[in-house]
Amino acid sequence: MSRSPSPDTVLNAPLVSSSLAPPRDIKSAGTTRIDFDGLLREPLLLKEDLKNGCGGQLWPAGMVLSKYMLSRHATDMAGKTIVELGAGGGLVGLAVARGCEIGLPLHITDQIPMFDLMKDNIALNQLDSTVVASVLDWGEPIPSHVPSKPDVILAADCVYFEPAFPLLITTLQDLLGPNSVCYFCYKRRRRADLRFMKMAKKAFDVQEVRDDPHAAEYSRESLYMYTIRVKPTKQPATSKQIPATKETTLLVTEVEK
Ligand SMILES: C[S@@+](CC[C@H](N)C(=O)[O-])C[C@H]1O[C@@H](n2cnc3c(N)ncnc32)[C@H](O)[C@@H]1O
Fold first, then answer.
1. Tens of pLDDT along 194-238?
2. Dihedral over alpha carbons 234, 240, 244, 248 (to 10 degrees)
3. Which of 96, 100, 109, 192 is a Cys-bridge partner for 136, taking CB atoms 3.0 to 4.6 Å apart?
4. Within a domain: residue 243?
5. CB of 157 closer than 6 A to ligand 1?
6. 46 C-alpha to center of ligand 1: Å?
7. Is 88 touching ligand 1 by the criterion CB < 6 Å?
8. Does 172 fall in a domain?
9. Domain assignment present for 100
């Protein structure tokens, strides 16, 4: 699929407040140092360059999701397979790789035009041994080297271009396994963005993230964070009808072992 336009192009609207992301009107290429209000002891260096697309700069939902992961999930990512979608320059994935305990390589993904920027930012932060950049176009098959049912999916500011909504839903369907969770942060810029959440709620189990102490603050800027999981499967009605006897209890215990 061809490259999606930027949220600004689509919306022709002013960007969110600079409290969440540095000001970036007509931003020229450069490198930003970022420690997420002290959450990172060693700051990240992020090369920003808009020449290849909107992912070449920092976006507010990426800042919010990075801070949330660093403050709430610093220690429970160890040993988990992690894939970031629409990573842009890799802000969220790189923040997690630097500030959270991770054991396995973390995959940051985007469309072809963002590939070099992702690679540059991995190298700039000397995270070559822990972060892998890949091309993953929503709606296309998942590349074989990207974990197909990762434990954790990260997605920030990926809702802004309506034609891409069903493609993103397809990719989430492909990636989400029974034990996967997607941390999904987006900025609602217009009513149409609600359509994406409606589609997501139909396809998945979508829950608002409630353990972020800054949620009230960023919801005032129309930023929202959710977890997305596969819907729990309904128990077949017949299994409920089997009366529990000593034998069936023993059988279930055996199977569970
Ligand atoms: C607004 S930027 C957000 C970048 C980054 N996640 C952040 O928060 O800073 C949206 C990103 O989604 C990517 N994107 C848009 N459509 C896509 C598609 N069909 N497949 C893969 N990535 C896509 C863009 O290339 C861009 O990097």
1. 999 999 999 999 999 999 988 888 999 999 999 999 998 877 776
2. -60
3. 109
4. no
5. yes
6. 16
7. yes
8. yes
9. yes
Identify the domain containing residue 180 by its residue range: 48-230
In a domain, 21, yes or no: no
Atom of ligand 1 nearest to the CA of 6: 1
According to DSSP, the residues that pair with 186 across neighbouring strands are 224
Q: Which of 219, 163, 214, 210 is nearest to 186 (CA)?
A: 219
Vertex 138: Cα angle to 120 and 142 (nearest 5): 80
What does the angle CA 104 – CA 46 – CA 133 come to, to the nearest 5 degrees? 40
Q: What is the pTM of this model?
A: 0.85
H or E stretch at 7: helix 7-11
86 annotated as ligand-binding: yes
Q: Domain with 134 in it: what CATH number?
A: 3.40.50.150
Nearest to residue 138, comparing CAs of 162, 115, 172, 184?
A: 172
Number of domains in the chain: 1
**Helices 91-99/60-72 angle, 10° precision:** 20
Query: Whole-angstrom Cα distance, residue 45 to residue 31?
Result: 6
Q: Which residues contact 120 (CB under 8 A, 6 or more apart)?
A: 47
